[in-house]
Specification:
eight-stranded antiparallel β-sheet; globular; single chain; binds adenosine-5'-diphosphate; alpha+beta; 31% helix; four-stranded parallel β-sheet
Length: 522
């Protein structure tokens, strides 16, 4: 009988994850009983060491892609967005408040501060945040330069002073985004999420009152009004996204357009690092995007959280996070093959490191039950072509970097009789052909990228950011105008996948298929 899947949690990793995995029949890794590599999922709240990516085995997954700090560190995010704004235009990358890294950008900040001091006759406010801290720690808001006092690296950002309020309270949205792959870029956004409220009414004449200006739960749960009824907000400081959706419904706005603009922010932000993240097919990452909506219903990106909190503080957390984790595990796509880990590991593992494949070795691979092979990239392609022969039923590959890769090859007949493997990975960045389209939804995770044949094509091989941004703009334009357009309904004419590629519109309750939705427009 196949054994259980095994998870390994590092230090402070979330209790809720342990609970969900145990309920699903997983076993927890025990270093006293198990070998170092004898696990299927290794989860850390902090970053993995690069060697942990290099030594991954086919049945193993990690919960972070390498090098995603380009969007999760406040200073790197500001820098990357500025670069994209310069390349692709400020009208496209206009969703994050102007930001400066201090002390380096101090002079540039001063120039902007002077320019905006009295913007159209209104005062301008700034928010200053420590680069290395989270959960609202060390943040302050100011109007006059004399109040800008800091003693560590900070980011100073234009303060969005006209937020949409509910019963007078400021809020932001925590959107859960899963990047299943960066090569090719494959993104899912969860339908559920959280709305996080400040616990004192919004008031620009008391900039020091963090309970009025910050929406972090870690701050507001200690506020004097956390437990009291606060108008429509109610007790506590969180709603589920479903409740927010219900609230939006009561307003006369183009809801779909709001969701799509948030979706655009997420895709455009991920595009800033997509080509610089090394490929790692066995990794997947959950990000928490914090979005503020202003009074004109324009969404703004505040920050991207690495390892968003998965603790349970209140009823809204209970409703959202358990389902989120469960859907995330489903996205990891474990199959019965991964359960054969222990058999492959203990009985049949042979490591062959080679720069050259001889005829004798080819025969050896065919006969061996399990084999790992380190090859250079050029050779990897040759081996991939060669090994797709009738004798071997499974072939996997892990890119180690631009110049090398590990192949894993398994003769499944010797491990599991005639059982055919359900998961076969062939090729790194070119693995996803038009015929291999990621599912439109997994639980409440909706695939938001690629969303049509053109974006699929533009994300295979070399990432064509310009083309992707054009497609995003076109779709957003249609949603804004309520007008249909043949090309988007049918996909790119020069692509084979037009008929089979469809997506769901992320955001609304019971999300419609994009093709049907567009066809129904006038
Ligand atoms: P942290 O990582 O410490 O949580 P954030 O950037 O998320 O830092 O900021 C904390 C809170 O401050 C946000 O949840 C939001 O309520 C408020 N905030 C942050 N930046 C802005 C901004 N530019 N305009 C308005 N409010 C902001």
């Amino acid at each position: 009988m196949a054994s259980s899947l095994v998870f390994r949690l590092h230090d402070r990793s979330p209790e809720l994850l342990r609970e969900v995995l145990l309920e699903r029949g997983w076993e927890e890794y025990d270093e006293r009983k198990q070998e170092e590599d004898d696990w299927n999922l290794y989860w850390r709240s902090s970053a993995f060491h690069s060697s942990e990516y290099h030594n991954l085995l086919p049945w193993q997954r990690l919960n972070h892609h390498p090098k995603t700090f380009g969007i999760t560190r406040k200073d790197c995010l500001a820098r990357n967005l500025r670069r994209m704004r310069t390349t692709f235009g400020s009208s496209l990358y206009d969703f994050s408040p102007t930001a400066f890294n201090l002390p380096n950008d101090y002079t540039r900040f001063l120039a902007e501060y002077d320019k905006l001091r009295l913007y159209r006759g209104h005062p301008v406010y700034w928010i200053c945040k420590p680069v290395d801290l989270s959960r609202g720690r060390g943040i302050f808001i100011f109007e006059g330069i004399k109040d800008l006092v800091y003693d560590c690296p900070m980011i100073v950002q234009r303060y969005i002073s006209n937020p949409l309020l509910i019963s007078g309270y400021k809020f932001d949205l925590r959107i859960y985004v899963c990047v299943k792959s960066f090569h090719p870029l494959t993104v899912y956004i969860h339908q559920e999420g959280l709305v996080r409220f400040a616990t004192e009414k919004y008031n620009l004449s008391s900039l020091q009152n963090l309970y009025s200006h910050l929406t972090n739960t870690s701050i507001n749960r200690f506020g004097p009004f956390y437990k009291t009824q606060k108008g429509r907000v109610g007790q506590g400081c969180k709603w589920t996204m479903s409740k927010f959706r219900h609230f939006l419904h009561s307003l006369d706005i183009n809801e779909l357009l709001l969701w799509q603009r948030i979706n655009n922010i997420i895709t455009l932000t991920l595009l800033t690092i997509a080509s610089s993240v090394p490929s790692c097919p066995n990794c997947l990452e959950l990000f928490g995007f914090d979005i503020l909506v202003d009074i004109k219903f324009k969404p703004w990106l505040l920050e991207v959280n690495y390892s968003p909190a998965l603790t349970l503080d209140c009823q809204a957390d209970n409703l959202v996070k358990k389902g989120l984790i469960s859907d995330l595990i489903d996205l990891m796509n474990y199959t019965s093959i991964d359960r054969l880990r222990d058999r492959a590991y203990q009985k049949h593992k042979h490591l062959c490191f080679s720069n050259e494949i001889t005829e004798g070795e080819k025969e050896g691979f065919r006969g061996s039950a399990f084999c790992l092979l380190l090859v250079n990239q050029h050779l990897a392609e040759l081996v991939s072509a060669f090994l797709l022969g009738p004798v071997l039923h499974g072939l996997g590959m892990l890119w180690l970097g631009p110049s090398s890769a590990i192949f894993w090859v398994d003769a499944w007949s010797s491990l599991c009789g005639s059982q055919k493997p359900e998961r076969i990975q062939v090729g790194g960045s070119t693995a996803q052909t038009g015929k291999d389209i990621p599912p439109v939804r997994v639980g409440n995770f909706i695939r938001t990228f690629p969303f049509n044949a053109a974006t699929l094509k533009a994300s295979q091989h070399k990432l064509d950011v310009k083309k992707i941004t054009q497609e995003l703009q076109q779709l957003t334009g249609l949603l804004a105008s309520g007008q249909s357009h043949d090309r988007l309904c049918k996909g790119d004419k020069d692509t084979d996948d037009d008929d089979c590629f469809d997506s769901l519109l992320w955001g609304p309750k019971d999300p419609p298929l994009l093709s049907q939705f567009l066809m129904n427009l006038e």
